[in-house]
Amino acid sequence: MKRSLFIILIIVLALCVIGLIAVLWNLRPAGLLPPGTAQAVPTRTPLPPQAPITVYRSPAPGEEQALDEPIVIGFDQPMDRTSVEAAFRIEPKVEGRFHWEKNDLVFTPAEPLQRGASYQVTVAESARSAAGLPLKEPVTFAFRAVGYLEVTDVQPAPDTEEVGTDAVVTVLFNRPVVPLTSIAQQAALPHPLTFVPPVTGEGEWLNTSIYRFKP
Are 169 and 212 in contact (CB under 8 A)? Predict the structure, then answer.
């Protein structure tokens, strides 16, 4: 009888030890594996390639283009350069050459653009990325080449009568005429007004496109 109880006690203790080992195993720190067990390495699933788009251009919207400046179109990823150059059009037609600065297509006209003329640039959807995907949508924009310098306003207004002999004359131009300078450098700037009969006085540029003359 005593021997039977001893055997039962041994079995119960063994079961308790097995249960304790199982509990401790489940509570082990994450990533702790038995010796010799290979740990699974997570793999990243690459995103599918995306259709290319333009991220900027020069000239910018609403900006006049200098006659000898290049046209630049920037893409968001590497491009198949041959296909992009073949898809590029400018109307009226302008001869020029291409080169690339990373993902930027640069078109430099062979001759200066026509002053004041309007141009239309298009890059068709046949342009492809380096991964072979066509443009998400065709590129198209218009711009105007720099025009002629014009006077947009004069004060006093033309044909004004009975103007005071000490009246200040102000002339506004449609584009910058002189660079930004300090007051000390004003003397080196051009003076665009001529009076008939001659009038003595002092002139100054208020900014790059506004000139004021005080008799």
Answer: yes
Instruction: Please check the confidence at residue 22 and state whether its pLDDT lies above 80.
Output: no
* C-alpha to C-alpha distance for 208 and 159, rounded to whole angstroms: 26
Contact predicate 105/149, CB 8 Å: no
168 by DSSP, 3-state: which?
Answer: coil
Dist. CA 73–CA 30, nearest whole Å: 51
**Mean pLDDT, all residues of the chain:** 85
Alpha-carbon distances of 142 from 60, 121, 122, 154, 207, rounded to whole Å = 10, 6, 9, 31, 29
In contact, 73 and 105? CB cutoff 8 Å: yes
Token pair of 163 as six digits: 């103007």
Please give the span between the terminal C-alpha atoms of the chain, in angstroms, as a whole number.
Answer: 134
Taking a C-beta distance cutoff of 8 angstroms, is the pair 147, 115 a contact?
Answer: yes
Residue in 210, 192, 212 with CA at minimum distance from that of residue 202: 212
84 by DSSP, 3-state: which?
A: helix
Distance (Å) of CA 20 to CA 8, 14, 24, 30, 54: 18, 10, 6, 19, 64
